[in-house]
Write a structure and sequence with these properties.
By secondary structure, this protein is mostly helical. The protein has two domains: 3-211, Cation efflux protein transmembrane domain (Alpha-lytic protease prodomain-like, Up-down Bundle), CATH 1.20.1510; 217-302, Alpha-Beta Plaits. The chain is built from nine helices and three strands; from the N terminus they run αααααααββαβα. The protein has a three-stranded mixed β-sheet, covered by helices on one side.
Length: 310
């Protein structure tokens, strides 16, 4: 099948999934805000506030996804896919802000005095939101991992966080209804906020790691395995192996070491074979750059001895 056509179909699938996330997010925000309106619950307000932040984050994610799919140009010769790391960081930051606001609101209402009503109806609306978010969140994470889209995966994780938020709210509401003790409501709002903080900082850490080109051990292991096998079969060596995450693929560069009497033509054929093997292993795609060097004369040119497996 035409790889270009496959890539176009994958991009269209990702855009549809993100648009679905935005539409469902808007509907659920209205449901949760309605539940807060009729109950006055701090926990439900926390849930609604998190959903509001989520809508803003998804809006940015939709923009980021479209930008990441633009081809390289003169201003961005390596493409635009790195925006996915900004998107994950932005979403993580918004989650953290939502959590801090939730804690502030819960504590303020607890101090001022609690007043709750219609908790049964509020709990029912929240339960519906939980079911929808769990289904949507798992779908987005599945699509994101399958298509190697950090933007979509981060969005799905945020939605699953929203589902856990709603579950925490339901527990708090249930305890309040059963025991009649109103402080259960702000207590669970604060617990929900703590869980949101954990997820938000995780997304920020992943974003910073991508932008700073932090090494990925699993990718390195895959590269070493294929290079050890391929270079051994061709009787050549390699060193100076490096890789970085582009957001929608990997950039790999390395030096290949050949016998001094190898012709440029033969070296190029062998190097191309190595590059193709790497591209076949790393998903969703890999850009590979190889630098061809002689084994024996390498030390004189570079002033050091090659470490063939390093």
């Amino acid at each position: 099948m035409d790889l270009h056509l496959v890539r176009k179909k994958d991009q269209a699938l990702l855009r549809r999934a993100m648009n679905l996330s935005l539409a469902v997010g808007l509907i659920l925000f209205l449901v949760k805000f309605g539940a807060f309106w009729i109950t006055g619950s701090s926990a439900i307000f926390a849930d609604a506030a998190e959903s509001a932040i989520h809508i803003v984050a998804v809006g940015f994610a939709v923009f980021s996804l479209r930008l990441s799919q633009k081809p390289a140009d003169s201003d961005h010769p390596y493409g635009h896919a790195k925006i996915s790391f900004f998107s994950a960081g932005f979403e993580g930051g918004m989650i953290v802000l939502a959590a801090l606001f939730i804690i502030y609101d819960a504590v303020s209402k607890w101090i001022a005095g609690l007043h709750l009503e219609n908790l049964g109806l509020g709990a029912g609306l929240t339960a519906c939101a939980v079911l929808v978010n769990i289904a949507l969140g798992w779908y987005l994470v599945w699509i994101g991992r399958r298509k190697h889209s950090l933007i979509l995966e981060a969005n799905g994780k945020h939605i699953l966080t929203d589902a856990w938020t709603s579950i925490g709210v339901l527990i708090g509401l249930s305890l309040t209804i059963v025991t009649g003790w109103l402080p259960w409501d702000p207590i669970f709002a604060i617990l929900v906020a703590a869980n949101i903080l954990f997820t938000g900082f995780g997304l920020i850490r992943k974003s910073v790691g991508g932008l700073m080109d932090v090494a990925e051990p699993e990718v390195y292991r895959q590269l070493r395995a294929v290079l050890d096998e391929e270079t051994k079969s061709q009787g050549i060596g390699y060193h100076e192996l490096r890789h970085r995450n582009l957001g929608d693929g990997h950039w790999v560069d390395l030096h290949l070491l050949f016998d001094d009497d190898t012709s440029i033509r033969d070296a190029h054929v062998k190097a191309t074979r190595v590059e193709e093997r790497i591209k076949a292993v790393l998903k969703p795609r890999a850009l590979v750059t190889t630098h061809l060097e002689p084994k024996k004369d390498h030390a004189r040119i570079h002033g050091s001895n090659p470490a063939a497996g390093n």
